[in-house]
């Protein structure tokens, strides 16, 4: 049986993606009408019906993409009035690429046997995989990827872990650099010194330094942008390590116009709210509030267990984490100084943070930093992360505003995404390995 958390998670509106839920509803109709038999004819019929739905959605995406190409992103009112898809899914935004959804459905159906199921309708994950594969297929077709960015925890390494020399993702990161693709790690980890990031990426840094097949110029296409969009470090091939890049050499609008007082007051309010939560939500007394120059958060503490004679990390309840992050978001977005800047509220599964900035600004900063004369375009950018819930608890969500995105749930899936991006889908249509996840959206839309 599913856990209580798993059941309740599916019932929370702030955890649902409207586009996926809408497609799920479309597919429920042919499932009910045509899946009562497991004969070959019945399977062929329902496969055809599913494909027809994805063909129709693909045409709506095409219209959305074409309209988006004719205007600037901020002109949302015109955009929403002119597309059929925005009438059907109001939260959907412009697309950075087309999506070959019919082709992707057949690809995933061969792998997952979606149309062969008679008792389980197409699920959220089925649809997500189809959207994901469509994004990768499109990006491979044009072979125009110039920047791939990554979240850290749960994307490149396990939560709280680091990249070791034996990490399976390391060869793929090296391969991206070897082929002239810029690699950026855009993480919420807000360290203002390079050493902290070097420790988390140690295995990758060592492998990069020792790889003689990558030129020094290409090695320096590695950068880390920490604290969402606050601290930039770039790999220096001569030193074999990350070095800090002065703020004035990479910061861009709108961050350049933000006042220190607005940022400080926003963090002051967030810190005050977090202190109130400790009492109101009966949080463990070991929980600790941490204030940084551009962020404030609450993290679980440690408690000595006399029975095991070990110090164990205290866990906060999922409901407590979500109450804190949603309340923070609501209260701060109505705070005048916060309206003049940008901030991100999210929970990392065990803690809650409010950061100045956002990953959309971080990705955009790298697009301009690597190519200042001709900035990398959103359709040439792929961001890979695990935090893409529609609101509140996901700081990767904003990256959808600056490029195509990939929604993964483990470092193993990151490996599969990179394998499909670099070598194609042949290997996983013949195997039972993890399916790649590649969702790209803006305001809950898929690029």
TrEMBL record:
Cofactor: Mg(2+)
Domain of life: Eukaryota
Family (UniProt): Belongs to the ISN1 family.
Cross-referenced InterPro entries: HAD-like_sf, ISN1
Oligomeric and partner information: Homotetramer.
Molecular function GO labels: 5'-nucleotidase activity; ATP binding; magnesium ion binding
Enzyme Commission identifier(s): 3.1.3.-
Reactions accelerated catalytically: IMP + H2O = inosine + phosphate
Organism: Lachancea nothofagi CBS 11611
SUPFAM superfamilies in UniProt: HAD-like (SSF56784)
GO biological process assignments: inosine salvage; nicotinamide riboside biosynthetic process; nicotinic acid riboside biosynthetic process; nucleotide metabolic process
Protein name: IMP-specific 5'-nucleotidase 1
Biological role: IMP-specific 5'-nucleotidase involved in IMP (inositol monophosphate) degradation.
Keyword Magnesium found: yes
Keyword annotations from UniProtKB, A to Z: ATP-binding, Hydrolase, Magnesium, Metal-binding, Nucleotide metabolism, Nucleotide-binding
């Amino acid at each position: 049986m599913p856990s209580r958390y798993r059941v309740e998670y599916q019932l929370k509106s702030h955890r649902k993606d409207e586009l996926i839920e809408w497609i799920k509803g479309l597919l429920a109709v042919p499932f009910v009408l045509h899946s009562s038999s497991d004969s070959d004819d019945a399977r062929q019929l329902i496969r055809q019906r599913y494909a027809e739905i994805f063909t129709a959605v693909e045409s709506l995406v095409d219209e959305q993409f074409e309209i988006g190409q004719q205007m600037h992103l901020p002109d949302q009112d015109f955009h929403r009035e002119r597309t059929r898809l925005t009438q059907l899914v109001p939260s959907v935004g412009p697309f950075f690429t087309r999506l070959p959804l019919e082709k992707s459905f057949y690809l995933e159906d061969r792998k997952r046997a979606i149309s062969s199921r008679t008792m389980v309708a197409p699920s959220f994950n089925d649809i997500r995989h189809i959207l994901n594969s469509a994004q990768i297929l499109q990006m491979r077709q044009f072979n125009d990827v110039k920047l791939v960015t990554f979240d850290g925890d749960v994307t490149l390494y396990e939560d709280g872990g680091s990249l070791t020399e034996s990490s399976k993702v390391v060869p793929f990161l090296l391969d991206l650099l070897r082929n002239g693709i810029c690699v950026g790690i855009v993480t919420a980890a807000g360290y203002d010194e390079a050493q902290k990031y070097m420790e988390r990426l140690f295995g990758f840094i060592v492998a990069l330094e020792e790889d003689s097949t990558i030129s020094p110029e290409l090695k320096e296409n590695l950068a880390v942008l920490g604290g969402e969009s606050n601290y930039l470090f770039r790999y220096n091939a001569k030193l074999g390590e990350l070095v800090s890049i002065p703020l004035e050499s990479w910061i861009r609008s709108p961050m350049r116009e933000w006042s220190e007082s607005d940022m400080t007051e926003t963090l002051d309010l967030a810190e005050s709210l977090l202190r109130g939560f400790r009492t109101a939500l009966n949080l463990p007394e070991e929980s600790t509030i941490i204030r940084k120059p551009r962020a404030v958060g609450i993290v679980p503490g440690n408690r000595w267990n006399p029975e095991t004679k070990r110090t164990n990390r205290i866990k906060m309840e999922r409901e407590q984490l979500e109450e804190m992050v949603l309340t923070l978001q609501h209260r701060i977005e109505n705070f005048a100084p916060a309206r003049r800047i940008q901030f991100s509220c999210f929970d990392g599964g065990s803690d809650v943070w409010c950061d100045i900035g956002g990953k959309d600004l971080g990705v955009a900063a790298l697009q301009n930093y690597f190519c200042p004369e001709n900035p990398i375009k959103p359709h040439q950018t792929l961001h890979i992360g695990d935090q893409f819930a529609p609101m509140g608890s996901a700081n990767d969500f904003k990256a959808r505003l600056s490029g195509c995105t990939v929604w993964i749930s483990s470092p193993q899936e990151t490996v599969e995404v990179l394998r499909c991006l670099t070598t194609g889908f042949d290997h996983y249509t013949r195997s039972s390995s993890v399916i790649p996840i590649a969702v790209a959206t803006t305001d809950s839309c898929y690029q």
